[in-house]
Write a structure and sequence with these properties.
FAD, Electron transfer flavoprotein subunit alpha/FixB family protein, ETF_asu_C, transport, globular, single chain, binds flavin-adenine dinucleotide, Rossmann-like_a/b/a_fold, 2 domains, Rossmann fold, 5-stranded parallel sheet, 9-stranded mixed sheet, alpha/beta
């Protein structure tokens, strides 16, 4: 069976990124899923077991002295070494900041093509095809490359999980050229400011737009998100007006999300916003303008005032979960 490599992103505190589940699920569809990890120390048993539980049949641990101090380069060296050893049919990475950079650099190293922001991957006539959502989510495009494709996958786009496996470990030592890598001098952990799910990869997202009129009113979006256990998103107009931080912007120049549920409140649904949310599985829109373009992509729409409807929604959800 063809080997399919997955770059498993591991946090500084030893947590496997949520993206690993979907990536390993896709890899198991295409062949034999192998997780590649760049690490300074040998991986702890529980981390290997975790990757196995997500479907990795093998864990390729590439150790380097600079794994904690160089930016992205250790992951690229790990993948390049794994490609040379295992001759995989494809490499899958998250469409995260690090994943995108690693994909591009690996492609240069291996002379491969990169397929970005895939929302699905399949095999057809022996070729690996990546599907992407383009032009504001209005078209689905299938892409392929000659040789070994390197594919970045949109976080949250893949629902399934691979069957659990008992992962075998392959160990390798790699060298990172510190002169060519961006180096980390020190870490400054950002204090935990929110217990809400992270927007990228969240299963539920509640987003607000300019329709809220002020930062104070936008608190209603956050309240509904909290009642649902959802992440908070915003349109660019809401971000530009200072209602919500830039990190919450959904769309072409913000974050692309593929949650199970996306609730758009007081958002018109400009093409640049839809580009970042149209692949959500279920879209609910509330807008007082019946002709707002957001209703073109909504599965459920309510024409009405957010200030009337959202408080009722919050009350109903809270009373049901009480
Ligand atoms: C290059 C470029 C990149 C861009 N990137 C992005 C991006 O990444 N993300 C993004 O979102 N936008 C982006 N934009 C901006 C985009 O074109 C829109 O301007 C923006 O999405 C509009 O935000 P909005 O829907 O909140 O505001 P508006 O378009 O002003 O819509 C507000 C909506 O709220 C409704 N409303 C008002 N009051 C109420 C109420 N009381 N109850 C219910 N409904 C109400 C109105 O009917 C209206 O539909 C980009 C634009 C450009 C040119």
């Amino acid at each position: 069976m063809a080997h399919i490599l997955v770059l498993a992103e591991i946090s500084r505190h030893g947590h496997v990124a949520d993206s690993a589940r979907g990536l390993l699920a896709l890899a198991s569809r295409l062949g034999d899923p192998i997780a590649v990890v760049a690490t300074r120390e040998p991986l702890a048993d529980d981390l290997i077991a975790r990757l196995g539980s997500l479907g990795a049949t093998q864990v390729y641990q590439a150790q380097s002295e600079q794994a904690d101090t160089a930016l992205v380069a250790p992951q690229v060296e790990a993948l390049a070494a794994a490609v040379a050893t295992l001759n995989p049919a494809a490499v899958l990475l998250s469409h995260s900041f690090d994943g995108r950079e690693a994909a591009a650099r690996l492609a240069v190293r291996t002379g491969s093509g990169v397929l970005v922001d895939a929302i699905d991957v399949r095999t057809e006539d022996g070729r690996i095809i990546a599907s992407g959502s383009v032009y504001g989510g209005n078209y689905l495009v299938d892409s392929t490359t000659t040789g070994m494709p390197i594919i970045t996958v949109r976080p949250g786009a893949i629902d399934e999980s691979a069957p659990a496996a008992s992962a075998q470990v392959i160990s390798e030592t790699v060298t990172v050229d510190a002169a060519k890598a961006g180096m980390i001098d020190s870490y400054n952990d950002a204090p935990e400011v929110s217990v809400r799910p992270e927007l990228l990869g969240a299963k539920k997202v509640v987003s607000g737009g300019r329709g809220f009129g002020s930062k104070e009113n936008f608190a209603m979006v956050e309240e509904l998100a909290d009642a649902l256990g959802a992440a908070v998103g915003a349109s660019r107009a809401a971000v530009d007006a200072g209602y919500s931080p830039q990190t919450t912007q959904v769309g072409q120049t913000g974050v692309s999300v593929s949650p199970d549920l996306y609730i758009a409140l007081g958002i018109s649904g400009a093409i640049q916003h839809r580009a970042g949310m149209q692949t959500a599985k279920t879209i609910v829109a509330i807008n007082k303008d019946a002709d707002a373009p957001i209703f073109d992509v909504a599965d459920f729409g309510i024409v009405g005032d957010v200030f009337t409807i959202v408080p009722q929604l919050i009350e109903t959800i809270k009373s049901r979960s009480a």
